[in-house]
Amino acid sequence: LCWYYCEVNRARGRKRWRIDKRLKWITWKEYLNVVTELKKDVARSIEKNATERAIAVAYQRYLVLAFFSHVPDRQRTVRELELNRSFLKEGDRYVIRHGVEDYKTGNVYGERP
Fold this sequence. Notes:
extended; two-stranded antiparallel ribbon
């Protein structure tokens, strides 16, 4: 892979890649609109009596993006959430609780709120 990368660089004369950032990124408002649409998809799935799997997939897509719109954390943290361990129900809402073993400096700082 390294050899191939070097060959590509040689072939293009080591010119910098030109990437139009407008094509790669969306605004925060656009992101929030996507989250809103995914939430509507969940409701539509339930209304049309979709299979449990289809509803679960719709919820999963929505929840992952919704997490990142509210919880400024690393992708790894979200991927490793476990129900009733690090993702807990408190009253009528769910919270994320990071234990000492859940993040790199846990042994220094202890449990995160």
